[in-house]
Amino acid sequence: KKKTLTPNWSSLISESLRTFGNNFLLAVNVQAGVTLLIRVLKLLQKNPSALKKFSAIVGEESAKHRVDTLGLALFVGIFSGGFKFIRGAMHKIRDKEDGLNYFVAGTLASLSFFFVKKDRRRGIALYIFARVAQSLYNASKARGWFHFWGSHWQHGDSLLFTLSSAMIMYAYVMRPE
Predict the structure, then answer these.
(1) Which of 47, 49, 75, 142 is close enough to 115 for a disulfide, judged by CB 3.0 to 4.6 Å?
(2) Phi and psi for 3 in degrees, rounded to 5?
(3) Contact 104/86 with Cβ under 8 angstroms?
């Protein structure tokens, strides 16, 4: 019997919505936690006594971060949930699981990138580019097409990850615009 990704449309929809919800909430909580931590550290540096006031930590001054947080969370949630739904729907409609399903699902899910503010898109795009390059390299290495010097070492792939992340850090520090 042919194995399918999901047994029926209702389970595909519920799994996609669950993926959206989980990743949306994860992105909101991580981003809010980081924003809160940065705010507390800034207050500790400038005026430690201000930490006694709850409004100084989460007041209206940090409201702009809430909009950024929701935009990023919508991107993460819609990308992951939308990808899962489109891939599953194409599998059901075409009755075939191949690279085309993943390509179309990834392309359509990437439209969720427009929820991210314009000034944050470049950094995220650099990060995604580095991960795509690493994924392509790992797939090529697994198929035996080619590999870089050192990638056969025990932690050679970690070295490749470090080098690919270096360009992101360079861009963040030296060219933040």
Answers:
(1) 75
(2) -85, 130
(3) yes
Give residue for tokens 């409004």: 55
Q: Which two tokens stand for residue 101?
A: 């399903």
Backbone dihedral angles phi then psi of residue 148, each to the nearest 5 degrees: -80, 160
Overall pTM > 0.85: no
Tokens at 28, concatenated:
């909101």
Under the banding of pLDDT at 50, 70 and 90, the label for residue 19 is: very high
Residue in 124, 125, 142, 134 with CA at minimum distance from that of residue 164: 134
Does the CA dihedral 39-162-133-5 come out positive or negative?
Answer: negative
For tokens 């520090």, the residue is 173
Mind giving me the DSSP string for the chain? ----S-SSHHHHHHHHHHHHHHHHHHHHHHHHHHHHHHHHHHHHHH-GGGGG-HHHHHSGGGHHHHHHHHHHHHHHHHHHHHHHHHHHHHHHHHT--SHHHHHHHHHHHGGGGGGS-HHHHHHHHHHHHHHHHHHHHHHHHHTTS---TTTTSTTHHHHHHHHHHHHHHHHHHH---
Distance of alpha carbon 12 from alpha carbon 68, whole angstroms:
30
pLDDT in tens, 25-72: 999 999 888 888 888 888 888 888 877 777 777 776 666 667 788 888
